Every structure is written in structure tokens, then in C-alpha cells.
């Protein structure tokens, strides 16, 4: 349920109006400025003091800030509650009118955030995991290493495929190609070939799939596709964090994950995650890097969504009725809001991963883990 059958009708819905309100606007002739829009505050007692930032965003006073609520340690605004779960050592918030939705602020330490950022860029795009780049360039490894070494991906003729075509007398079939990372100096002058800088490919990375592979064209899980199981460390984390949303006596079984990569002006339109068999089981959603606005709506786009800040290290759980709720990300924050991830930047600065440091200053990564069956 990723799109509306009538685009014009979708533009008139409450969810679409909220997306437009919080979207980052950068008119071509007015770079750095924005259209300002306002919305009456819903949770007046948890207004954010965060400014609109570079490029727009309008009035953010209605955006729920769970970190501010946690720091204030006072009576919660109407409609927001605390979810107490035996044996869980972190605070958990919920919306009283959105059963099955849970917000765990600051669930991951700075060290844990750094680890998962590195894994998301180094390991998660590795084959057999598929990414949005796979359909265009085929399967290739070590994208991050190639980017750090300033390599270029070039299209090469595949002599084996050519030989097979000739043997099978398939003269009418287009010759197969493959891609390979090379040094700039290895590209022969005057030779025409399709090439893309590895650094550009990292910025074009939008998603990767772990565990059971999701087929975006058919919108289902294709168990026939080669895949590895969810990494043990990620599975263990997901099981632990999912516990407040699990039915009593049951344990979460991580079988698939989708990693989303957001650039400075990227957004995720309103949708419902409805491809898993059992909606009582939660989606465990981990936020890393730049802060964003997350919209949580109802079962139709006509219901007014609630906006909230998601920061690096926050975890959201969506289970039961919340699995039927439209949700999306209309905006991430960069540049003027670096203080939000200052500890993360400091931690990454101490290592030798300058490329990762520069990437995360202007990006957000979201890892959402699912139990498919």
C-alpha cells in the first residue's frame, strides 16, 4: 500500500497536507530560504525549541519531542503515555489512540550507533543482499572501500557471455555486460565505456535488503532469491528491543530487514507496511544519523497524522493496529542541526573513517527489522 490509486485525491488528504507542511523546500532562486507554513499545535506542552533550520520546514511547534519529555520528567501531555514492560531497562512512550506504537528514545549508545552506521555502509550492501543499485549495475562488492579509494565503476564486456552467445548462435541477443571497480588511471583515453564514480554510487544508495529478500516490483518476499540470515548481532538487538511490543510469552524472530538511506532532501511518502503475514509482530525501526520528522497517521490518509522527531539512537516499534497506520518521513535535518549528532560526530572523528563521518553529517539511515512469517 505504497501509493494512492488517485494521485489528485491523495494531494487533498490530511496526510499529504502534513507532508507538505514539514517538507524541506528549496526554491531554485532562493537557496537557503523556504516557504513557511504553520499548523495549530496538537501537543502544546511538548513544543520543540528546535528552529526550522536551513531551507525551510515551517512551524515545528506541534512536533512531539520525546527527548524533551524525558528530560522534563513531568506529567505527560494528554494523549501520551508511558509503557512499562517488566525487565525492559529503557523508557518507552506510546500514544493512547495508536495501540501498538511504541517509542524508545535514546535506545542505543553512541558507540552502538557508530557500529550500526558502519555496518549499514560497509556490510549491509554486500551481496547476496540486494540494493536499489543491483538492477542497474548487477551484483558488486565493497562499494564503501571503492568510494574511499576514489575508484570508478566501469562497464566491461563479458567474454564468457559473448562466447556462449556465439556458440548458441544467439546473434540477436544483446551481449551481457558486467561492472568492475577500477582506478581512474585504468580507464583508457578515448575508450567509450559506461562509468560512475564509487562516491556517486554511495550517494545514490537508497535501500538494501537483509535476510529474506523483498521484491519491490512484486511487493512480496521472494524466498528463491539467494540470501543470508539476519546478522546475529542485529537479530539479538531486534529481539531485545521488540519485547515491549510482543505478545506475552512470545519471542520476536528477525527474518528480514530493509535499510533505508536518506540524503539531504530525501523523503519517504506515506505508506503502510503490509507484506508480512502476522501484524501482531512488530517492525523494529532503528534511526541513525541526522534527525528527521516522522509522521504517524491512521488507517486512512484522511486522518490527521501526528508528527514527532526521530533522532539517532531512537527506536520505534509498530505492531498490531499500528501496523495498519500510514506513516512516512517528510524531512531530515542537516547542516544547522549538527549539535543534534555532535557526540556521534566526535566518536566517528576519532577513527580513520573520514568518508563515513562526512556521509553521516548529511544523511540518515533507518534499519527496520521484520518477522515475515
Automatic annotation (TrEMBL):
Binds 1 Fe(2+) ion per subunit. Keywords: Dioxygenase, Iron, Metal-binding, Oxidoreductase. Residues 253-373 form the Fe2OG dioxygenase domain. One of its GO terms (cellular component) is cytoplasm. Gene3D superfamilies: Alpha-ketoglutarate-dependent dioxygenase AlkB-like (2.60.120.590). It comes from the Eukaryota. Fe cation binds at residues 271, 273, 327. Signal peptide: none annotated. Residues 19-55 are annotated as: Disordered. Belongs to the alkB family. This is Fe2OG dioxygenase domain-containing protein. It comes from Paspalum notatum var. saurae.
Amino acid at each position: 500500500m505504497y501509493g494512492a490509486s488517485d494521485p489528485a485525491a491523495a494531494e487533498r488528504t490530511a496526510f499529504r497536507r502534513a507532508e507538505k507542511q514539514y517538507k524541506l523546500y528549496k526554491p531554485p532562486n532562493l537557496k537557503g530560504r523556504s516557504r513557511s507554513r504553520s499548523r495549530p499545535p496538537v501537543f502544546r506542552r511538548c513544543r520543540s525549541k528546535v528552529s526550522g533550520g536551513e531551507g525551510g520546514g515551517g512551524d515545528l511547534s506541534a512536533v512531539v519531542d520525546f527527548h524533551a519529555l524525558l528530560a522534563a520528567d513531568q506529567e505527560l501531555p494528554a494523549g501520551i503515555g508511558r509503557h512499562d514492560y517488566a525487565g525492559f531497562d529503557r523508557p518507552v512512550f506510546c500514544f493512547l489512540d495508536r495501540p501498538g506504537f511504541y517509542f524508545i528514545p535514546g535506545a542505543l549508545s553512541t558507540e552502538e550507533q557508530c557500529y550500526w552506521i558502519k555496518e549499514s555502509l560497509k556490510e549491509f550492501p554486500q551481496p547476496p543482499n540486494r540494493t536499489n543499485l543491483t538492477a542497474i549495475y548487477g551484483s558488486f562488492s565493497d562499494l564503501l572501500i571503492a568510494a574511499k579509494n576514489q575508484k570508478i565503476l566501469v562497464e566491461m564486456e563479458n567474454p564468457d557471455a559473448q562466447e556462449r552467445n556465439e556458440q548458441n548462435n544467439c546473434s540477436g541477443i544483446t551481449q551481457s555486460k558486467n561492472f568492475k571497480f577500477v582506478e581512474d588511471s585504468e580507464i583508457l583515453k578515448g575508450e567509450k565505456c559506461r562509468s560512475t564514480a564509487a562516491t556517486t554510487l554511495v550517494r545514490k544508495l537508497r535501500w538494501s535488503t537483509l535476510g529474506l529478500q523483498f521484491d519491490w516490483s512484486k511487493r512480496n518476499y521472494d524466498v528463491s532469491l539467494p540470501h543470508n540470515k539476519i546478522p546475529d548481532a542485529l537479530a539479538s538487538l531486534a529481539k531485545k528491543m521488540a519485547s515491549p511490543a510482543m505478545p506475552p510469552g512470545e519471542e520476536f524472530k528477525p527474518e528480514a530487514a530493509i535499510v533505508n538511506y536518506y540524503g539531504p532532501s530525501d523523503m519517504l511518502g506515506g505508506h503502510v507496511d503490509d507484506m508480512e503475514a502476522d501484524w501482531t509482530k512488530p517492525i523494529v525501526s532503528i534511526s541513525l544519523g541526522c534527525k528527521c520528522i516522522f509522521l504517524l497517521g491512521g488507517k486512512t490518509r484522511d486522518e490527521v497524522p501526528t508528527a514527532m522527531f526521530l533522532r539517532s539512537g531512537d527506536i520505534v516499534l509498530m505492531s498490531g493496529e499500528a501496523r495498519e497506520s500510514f506513516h512516512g518521513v517528510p524531512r531530515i535535518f542537516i547542516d544547522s542541526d549538527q549539535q543534534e549528532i555532535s557526540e556521534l560526530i566526535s566518536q566517528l572523528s576519532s577513527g580513520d573513517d573520514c568518508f563515513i563521518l562526512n556521509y553521516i553529517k548529511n544523511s540518515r539511515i533507518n534499519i527496520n527489522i521484520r518477522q515475515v512469517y
